[in-house]
Amino acid sequence: MGADGVWAQDASGAYHLLVVNGPAFLRTTFASFFPNGFTSSTAVTLTKSP
């Protein structure tokens, strides 16, 4: 809904940033932390630039 960033927490507790519509290398890095998608409850924070 208009978010331009998603912080998602992995199983180790670390947060990773996905820049919505960002460069491919950022999406690839994010996807490497969640290779099977979100397979269980996952904490996420959506961000939106003003």
Describe this structure in words.
- The protein has 50 residues and is an alpha+beta fold.
- The chain has one domain (5-47).
- Helices cover 20% and strands 28% of the residues.
- A 3-stranded antiparallel β-sheet has the order 2-1-3.
- It is globular and about 30 Å long.
Key features?
50 residues, alpha+beta, three-stranded antiparallel sheet, 1 helix, 3 strands, globular
Layout of strands and helices, then pairs:
Layout lengths: L4 E5 L5 E5 L4 H10 L10 E4 L3
Antiparallel strand pairs: 1-2, 1-3
Order of helices and strands: EEHE
Low confidence ranges: none
In this structure, how is the largest beta sheet organized?
A: 3 strands, antiparallel
Strand order of the largest sheet: 2-1-3
**Helicity range:** 10-25%
Would you report the number of β strands? Answer: 3
Strand content: 25-35%
- Radius of gyration from the CA trace? 11 Å
- Overall, the morphology is globular
Give the rounded overall mean pLDDT.
Answer: 88
Report the span from N to C terminus.
14 Å
- As for the number of domains, it is 1
How many DSSP H or I helices?
A: 1
The computed structural class is: alpha+beta
